[in-house]
Design goal:
Blueprint (H helix, E strand, L loop, with lengths): L3 H15 L5 H28 L39 E5 L5 H12 L4 E5 L8 E2 L2 E2 L3 E4 L2 H5 L3 H14 L2 E5 L10 E3 L6 E6 L1 E6 L14 E4 L5 E5 L5 E9 L3 E3 L2 E3 L4 E8 L8 E4 L6 H14 L9 E11 L10 H17 L5 E5 L9 H12 L5 E4 L12 H17 L22 H11 L3 E4 L14 E3 L2 E5 L1 E2 L15 H9 L3 H8 L2 E7 L8 H16 L3 E3 L3 H11 L15 H5 L13 E3 L7 H10 L4 E2 L22 H5 L13 E4 L9 H8 L4 E6 L2 H14 L3 H5 L2 H5 L7 H11 L4 H9 L7 E5 H6 L1 H12 L11 E4 L4 E5 L5 E2 L14 H10 L1 H13 L6 H8 L1
Parallel strand pairs: 1-2, 1-5, 5-6, 6-16, 17-18, 17-24, 17-25, 18-19, 20-22, 23-24, 26-28, 26-29, 27-28, 29-30
Antiparallel strand pairs: 3-4, 7-8, 8-11, 9-10, 9-12, 12-15, 13-14, 15-16, 21-22, 31-32, 32-33
Helix pairs in contact: 1-2, 7-8, 7-13, 9-10, 19-22, 27-28
Length: 880
């Protein structure tokens, strides 16, 4: 597009020329100049009109929508029509620093909508873009447009080629540059100019764009935050405005005065006509609420629908503490009537909507005369609402036994029956979230026994903040859904007392946190309280306003279904959340407050022996248990000395089940507890689970020659009369091909996979810092356990050091060290330990040497990087 300043300069020059005395020739020149200017100016107006970047001010309707609907309706676009099936559903985010505010806002948004992403800094080499001829990323996001233009030529070529070959689009944000002022800045390599540090008003989206899916354009935002906006100028047809706004300030530009009320472009789409790469460029970050919607729609459009969010949003509003509250703040009859009227209005906008009332019958009619009349009117109209049990006396579940909880729930059951309250949703909520998470198993059992309850909700899993990380889980057959807050609490009952006042509440509704929860989450369960519906009735104002605002600016379909249906929908969407992740309750103050008082985090182990199997873990377990300052777990009737909590079906039994394997600190001689489960080492999910519960635990593993370990496992299975081990030689097992029987492939995997040590160690190092990991040379543990145990004690910081030289003695019959019982007698491991096998056949030995060669090389490098001594067996392997 032509810059306005150029036009003004041309007009000024012609004006000055016509006032001079001039010859006929000069007059002819003036006439030609006027004609040229006319053609020039008409061309400028035509281009300006076509590009829609500098038009007259549009009309200014109110930001609010009449009846919650915008004047110009816009249907959501289906971006799957041009989907590229050669790319994965992942976003590559390139940042200058992952700790900058702009980078964190991008990553937080992606995390909030649960999009998979990889973040890299632009100063490093770019990641691998493809895998098996399929693109890994469907969209590339640059925190800074300038960072893209400053990529070195090699990386720039790689990036552009990938985007062209795989049809991948880019999203770019323009960060404010220092010492630029409001001058025009050219974008290197593009027919595009930027103008920065601009303040805007009257922001409006282009209604004709095919990008909009969640976003519903048509309205105008008059007040636009920030004075550091960037706007885009170009006369190339590849650039199409996605939004336009009006300058909210006057300024001098290139020595000339530029008036305000000029229309500019703050967000632009590059259609790819220049280099075959589609882009969306943002002239401001995600701190402007509307840009969240534009960002999500751009991801959807540029990915061909692969990163599209569903338009369905399910809403449930719980009103906890019905009948609970001090006299003077409870609901009266007019408040109940207003509640019914508001529900009727909301039902016209949110199909199936009902307020969900949680009652505590003990407090029925415990208020003033007017408030008691309100209680009676609620009961009289009980059939208009949904109801759930909120504990008879509003008691905290984690402080009650199973018998006490069942007794309370039976009273609630009787109260509901007496007052004709229908409780058929199989849904309940515990006061203060007590007992839901951290779980109190007695609460879950009582719910099932009395109410046949199947669904509940909590804010506390995995923790309260940030709200977009709240998740669901299933425990003991009860589905726990994430619960959101709307900014209203028991103390926010009057607008004048609301923190920040009405302006702050409206900010949350109009693009702030409450609005974002609906945008980000397909399932939204909101917690409110009885007092929020009396007094100033802030809850009615809040929910009616946010529903209206959502329908004004989005194409989302708000609806409500029964809690059971809601839970099924949630876990259909997020099946990976069915299994909970148990965390340490003592690492979060709110969790400690709602955890049973009889429980103690000192009952959790201080360190873990993680394996792998057949490396000497049982011997290490025995030596550790000899230490007077260390205590092991109680034996399991199924798995003997191993608990095997983090890696198998025992994990879903919960934290209470796990803690029962450890002594109560007050009754124990030591609180330095540990457990050994040799199957932890190579299980993919164990490091994450172990870190969630025991983030400060120390980790000990034992490594021997992986070929020796594989052969030992085969012989172990053979000694236990495993049919596959008995029917196949060791060489046949380790060389089995993919078409072999599944039992043979399973045995092959258990022989070979644990020995890929570096792969498994790196997975543990993803969660635990190096200082918490200790690697034992298994050959040294066997030949010199005294020295090894001295190193282990120093790693654990156990004082005083235990003298193992007086407690261990080599037993020539067994071929390894045993515990000294008396001068003549040793206590050795069982008959299954220390077996002597026939030597491994040479073919198997050579096959395994080649199989583990690359992994052993990588292992030696890792150990050196971790400042661990390279074991003698590994040095010998690398010399061969």
């Amino acid at each position: 597009m032509l810059c306005r300043r150029h036009v003004e300069k041309f007009k000024s020059a012609v004006f000055r020329l016509t006032w001079r005395r001039c010859s006929v020739t000069r007059l002819l020149i003036v006439a030609v100049a006027i004609c040229a200017f006319s053609i020039f100016y008409l061309s400028y107006r035509l281009v300006a009109t076509q590009t829609s970047t500098r038009t007259q001010n549009p009309p200014r309707p109110s930001i609010s929508c009449r009846d919650g609907l915008q004047a110009m309706r816009h249907n959501p676009n289906d971006h799957t029509l041009h989907s590229n099936f050669r790319t994965g559903k992942k976003v590559l985010v390139l940042v200058e620093s992952p700790y900058s505010d702009s980078a964190k806002s991008i990553l937080n948004t992606l995390e909030a909508v649960r999009m998979d992403y990889k973040v890299e800094t632009v100063w490093k080499n770019l990641p691998m873009f493809t895998h098996h001829d399929k693109g890994k990323f469907s969209v590339v996001v640059f925190e800074s447009l300038v960072a893209y233009t400053r990529l070195d030529s090699w990386n720039r070529q790689i990036m552009d080629k990938y985007c062209k070959d795989y049809g991948v689009g880019m999203i770019m944000f323009v960060q404010p540059m220092e010492n630029v002022g409001t001058d025009y800045v050219s974008v290197l390599g593009f027919p595009l100019e930027l103008q920065q540090n601009i303040r805007l008003k009257d922001y409006q989206l282009d209604t004709t764009s095919s990008i909009w899916r969640i976003t519903r354009p048509g309205e105008i935002i008059h007040s636009v935050p920030g004075d550091d906006w960037t706007v885009f100028h170009s006369n190339h047809s590849s650039y199409q405005p996605l939004a336009k706004a009006v300058l909210a300030q006057s300024f001098w530009d290139d020595q000339e005065y530029i008036d305000d009320n000029m229309t500019v472009v703050p967000v632009v789409r590059d259609c790819g006509l220049i280099d075959n790469i589609q882009r969306v460029l943002f002239g401001h970050g995600l701190d402007f609420w509307l840009h969240h919607l534009l960002f999500l729609d751009s991801l959807s459009f540029l990915s061909g629908g692969k990163l599209s969010l569903s338009l369905d949003r399910y809403i449930q509003v719980d009103i906890d503490d019905i009948f609970v509250g001090q006299t003077g703040i409870r609901m009266e009859k007019p408040d109940v009537e207003a509640l019914i009227d508001a529900q009727t209005r909301l039902q016209s906008q949110v199909p199936g909507f009902h307020f969900n009332l949680g009652f505590s019958g003990y407090y029925y009619k415990h208020g003033s005369e007017a408030e008691n009349e309100g209680d009676e009117y609620l009961i009289k109209n009980s059939n208009k609402f949904w109801w759930f049990d909120h504990m008879f006396q509003h008691e905290q579940a984690h402080k009650r036994t199973l018998e006490e909880l069942e007794k309370s729930m039976l009273k609630s059951y009787a109260f509901a029956k007496e007052h004709n309250i229908v409780v058929s949703q199989q849904y309940a909520v515990a006061p203060h979230h007590s007992g839901v998470y951290p779980v109190h198993d007695s609460l879950y059992d009582a719910w099932k026994n009395v109410w046949d309850m199947r669904v509940t909700s909590t804010e506390e899993y995995p923790r309260l903040h940030p709200f977009w990380r709240r998740r669901g889980f299933i425990h003991r057959g009860i589905m726990v859904l994430p619960r959101m807050t709307c900014g209203l609490f028991t103390h926010t009952i009057m607008m004048e007392n609301y923190p920040g006042g009405k302006e702050h509440l409206d900010h949350s509704i109009q693009g702030g946190e409450l609005f974002e929860t609906i945008i980000y989450n397909p399932v939204n369960i909101y917690m409110t309280h009885l007092s929020n519906y009396g007094n100033d009735r802030l809850a009615l104002y809040t929910f009616e306003s946010v529903v209206k605002f959502v329908q004004c600016w989005t194409n989302l379909k708000l609806q409500q279904v029964l809690p059971m249906q809601l839970a099924f929908k949630y876990f259909d969407l997020f099946p990976e959340e069915k299994e909970p992740i148990w965390q340490n309750p003592c690492s979060y103050k709110r969790h400690i407050e709602i955890w049973a008082t009889s429980k103690d985090c000192n009952r959790l182990p201080k360190f873990l022996v993680i394996g792998p199997q057949k490396t000497g873990t049982t011997a290490l377990y025995t030596f550790l248990a000899m230490h007077p300052a260390i205590m092991s777990n109680y034996p399991s009737p199924e798995t003997f000395e191993e608990v095997q909590f983090f890696n198998g079906k025992n994990y879903i039994k919960g934290l209470d089940w796990y803690m029962e394997f450890f002594p109560i600190p007050n009754n124990a001689t030591s609180d330095f507890l540990f457990e050994k489960s040799a199957t932890y080492f190579d299980n993919e999910r164990v490091p994450m689970r172990a870190h969630a519960l025991l983030p400060k635990a120390k980790i000990i593993c034992i490594l021997i020659n992986p070929a020796k370990r594989a052969y030992s496992w085969y012989q172990h299975m053979k000694s236990h009369q495993d049919a596959t081990a008995l029917n196949y030689t060791f060489y046949e097992v380790i060389t089995a091909t993919e078409d072999a029987p599944s039992s043979l492939l399973d045995l092959k995997a258990r022989c070979l996979q644990p020995g890929l040590y570096v792969q498994h160690l790196l997975r543990w190092l993803d969660y635990f810092p190096t200082r918490q990991l200790f690697i034992i040379d298994g050959e040294q543990l066997r030949s010199d356990p005294v020295l090894t145990m001295t190193h282990v004690q120093r790693f654990l910081h156990i004082q005083p050091l235990y003298n193992y030289s007086q407690s261990l003695r080599y037993d020539p019959k067994k071929g390894f060290f045993c515990q000294v019982v008396s001068e003549e007698k040793n206590k050795c491991l069982g008959r299954g330990k220390g077996r002597v096998y026939l030597p491994m056949e040479p073919a198997s030995d050579e096959y395994l040497r080649q199989y583990y060669k690359q992994d052993n090389i990588a292992l030696s490098k890792l150990l050196l990087r971790l400042n661990h001594r390279v074991p003698q067996w590994l040095q010998e392997e690398l010399r061969n």
